[in-house]
Write a structure and sequence with these properties.
Layout: H1 3-16, H2 26-40, E1 47-50, E2 53-56, H3 58-69, E3 74-78, E4 81-85, H4 93-97, E5 101-102, E6 108-109, E7 114-115, E8 120-121, E9 126-127, E10 132-133, E11 138-139, E12 144-145, E13 150-151, E14 156-157, E15 162-163, E16 176-177, E17 182-183, E18 188-189, E19 194-195, E20 200-201, E21 206-207, E22 213-215, E23 220-222, E24 225-226, E25 230-238, E26 252-260, H5 268-276
Parallel strand pairs: 5-8, 6-9, 7-10, 8-11, 9-12, 10-13, 11-14, 12-15, 13-16, 14-17, 15-18, 16-19, 17-20, 18-21, 19-24, 20-25, 22-26
Antiparallel strand pairs: 1-2, 3-4, 22-23, 25-26
Length: 277
């Protein structure tokens, strides 16, 4: 256990014993500042891949929660706007030195977020506390990268993409988008879903553990992750509700179809046949 992890564990225990923002001392706030700096430097992460599986670093998520619990909300300035929060926005001076661009007029990076080198953040975009955005990644206009989300290197997040945040419970792994992934415009990835590396996801696709992924490569249905090197798109399949007195024409539910990355096209008849099978 590192000294920082030990300090966070001690603060967490004291918080459970009743420590409040009003009681927090200078040393406590110094620990919280050091923790945020470690997040921004990429020295600690809310989740890491171990044994082929992504796992949450619970102590890191506790450190983020402590920043909300042990700091007072106060008025802050962002351009001509006054807002109220427990944290200021992230200092972005280091980004320019590392070749990363964040365009003005609405690009917001909250304290405690890591952004790698040679990345691009187009306005308006929002990157929340605990998020990790890798080298060479594009966060396009109107994108949201939620708290603790782990975005790999050389990823393309299409415009108006939502990457959900998973802060609580602390043991739950956040959303992960692995290296080399391309998400089309309007995609949504939520609830700890993992998008495997080098995959291409069609626009307006919803990826969440509650929606099945029909993997035509391995001929299986999986939940909670898109295997690596897949080309995926949203489809609608017949629901178990079927015909109902309240409506005509049957009921359908969303599903994700995944093909091999080299399959640039899949004829509609092949898609329907695969789904029926």
């Amino acid at each position: 256990m590192s000294a920082l992890e030990s300090d966070v564990a001690d603060l967490w225990a004291r918080r459970e014993d009743g420590l409040t923002a009003a009681d927090a001392g200078l040393d406590d706030l110094t620990t919280l500042d050091a923790f945020l700096e470690a997040l921004e430097a990429g020295e600690v992460r809310a989740a890491e891949k171990r044994g082929g599986e992504w796992e949450a670093n619970e102590w890191v998520k506790r450190g983020i929660l402590l920043n909300f619990a042990l700091r007072e909300t106060r008025a802050r300035e962002y351009g001509d706007v006054t807002y109220h929060d427990v944290l200021p926005l992230r200092d972005t001076a280091d980004l320019g030195r590392r070749g990363t661009r964040n365009t003005p007029d609405g690009t917001v990076i909250r304290r405690g977020a890591y952004v790698g080198s040679d990345a691009i953040l187009m306005s308006p975009a929002f990157v929340n506390v605990g998020a990790h955005v890798g080298d060479g990644t594009l966060v396009d206009s109107c994108d949201t990268v939620g708290s603790c989300a782990q975005i790999g290197s050389d990823v393309k997040l299409g415009a108006n993409t939502l990457i959900g945040g998973v802060l609580e419970p602390v043991e739950s792994a956040p959303v992960v988008v692995e290296d080399g992934v391309s998400l089309g415009a309007g995609c949504r990835v939520t609830s700890g879903f993992v998008v495997g590396e080098d995959s291409i996801v069609g626009e307006n696709t919803l990826l969440t553990p509650r929606i099945p992924v029909y993997d035509l490569v391995e001929e299986e249905v999986v939940y909670g992750h898109l295997p690596a090197e897949r080309r995926a798109f949203i489809r609608y399949v017949e629901s178990s509700v079927g015909d109902h007195d309240l409506f005509d024409g049957g009921a359908y539910k969303p599903a994700v179809v995944a093909t091999h990355i080299e399959d640039e096209t899949l004829e509609a008849t092949e898609r329907e046949g695969a789904l029926r099978e």
